[in-house]
Amino acid sequence: MRFFNAIIYTTIILVVFGCKSPKERGLNLVEKLEKECNSGEAYSCHTLAVKYELGEGVEMSRASAAKFYKMGCDLDHTKSCFGIAYMYEHGHGVETSFKDANRLYKHLCDAKNEPKGCNNLGFNYHQGRGVEQSFQTANALYKKACDAGYMTSCKNLGDSYKNGEDVEQSYERANALYRQACDAGEMRGCEALAINISAGLGAEESVERANALFEKACRGGAPLSCHELGVSYELGTGVKQSYKDANELYKIACDEGEPSGCESLGDSYELGQGIPQSHVRANELYEKACDAGSASSCDSLGLAYFRGEGVEKSVERANQLFRKACEGGEMLGCYNLAMSYEKGTGVEQSYERALELYNKACDAEDVGSCEALAFLYDHGEGVEQSSAIADQFHRKACDAGSETSCERFPHQDPEKPADE
């Protein structure tokens, strides 16, 4: 009987769907959606755009996705307008155009009363992307979206109050907005509130309360919070010290795309801290974080190449990474690259280039760079010898905390600036 039923079921399937493969049926659906889209069915345009963007039933094509998002948006489909605006912002399938994205966000904000459109337009005004930068306009758009219940905008407006961007600076007002966002489920609001509470900004300092908020945000999908909670476990700040728990949190953060999590986990592997030491694994994590924009990780990876730890030694590759770190704002990268130029290690020796890099890092209070400049002027290497100028750099190094440089000034406390 079961065999007979199976034959009947198979016959029904063949009658309904024919003998076509799933791929063939998918193509038929695409053809049907395209026909409906061309006939003015906005939802079919949007569905087709999503399929091309994700490669569902068709070969993935951002150009086709953008084409159908635009057709859907022209038919006043809200999600399609957000879709094509995103494509314009990121240059997916179309030429990057913040101007076109902003035009769409303005339409969504003004004509469609979509708070997300107001928020995205506000963010671009805040960053000056496709429009003249205007904190005032950004804040007005954030407030409109926040008042409409879009909690990301409440968090963004909180940032404006924290930084005093065209509003009177107020940690208390910032925290109220962060709390509003957090209570409504916006985890970055919890994260921002935790950061302020941990530093005692606008609220009583409390590492325990901060850790509770970091934990909430981490569980809610905010990877930076996982990293920050990991730091608390590593240092034993407000929680029982545990390298194991710290590394687990760093891994969560790293796996979810937070470069600081990859970097901190890399540090643990490099030091063998709560985990078997592995320079190879550390370097893999540093590379991942460096590629994701962590300048300090680029410097750490550069040092590994310079020393040949976990990788084949290459001072040329090291210098490339030091340069990337320096350009990304990591002053240790500038210092390390300056040393290579000073000694001619992997690059053509150049005191001029070394001095330029040392000065850049020293101006940013990198102690080692200030001490290096003092040494060069003390000994007249690459510059005209000048004890007076050397003393100026020793003074800067001393003010930044260098005990060695402070020995030049016996009455100077290394923790106290010279003019106090």
Q: Any descriptors?
A:
single chain; 420 residues; mainly alpha; 23 helices; globular; disordered N terminus
Taken from the alpha-carbon principal axes, the silhouette is: globular
Please estimate the helix content: over 70%
Helix count equals 23
Using the CA coordinates, give the radius of gyration.
28 Å
Instruction: Report the β-strand fraction as a percent range.
Output: under 5%
Separation, N- and C-terminal Cα atoms: 97 Å
Structural class computed from helices and strand pairing? mainly alpha
At a glance:
The protein has 420 residues and is mainly α.
Question: Can you describe what's shown?
Answer:
With 420 residues, this protein is mainly alpha-helical. The protein has 23 helices and no strands. The protein has helices at residues 2-17, 22-38, 42-54, 62-74, 78-90, 98-110, 115-127, 135-147, 151-163, 171-183, 187-199, 207-219, 223-235, 243-255, 259-271, 279-291, 295-307, 315-327, 331-343, 351-363, 367-379, 387-399, 403-406. The protein starts with a helix and ends in a 14-residue tail after the last helix. Residues 1-19 have low confidence and may be disordered.
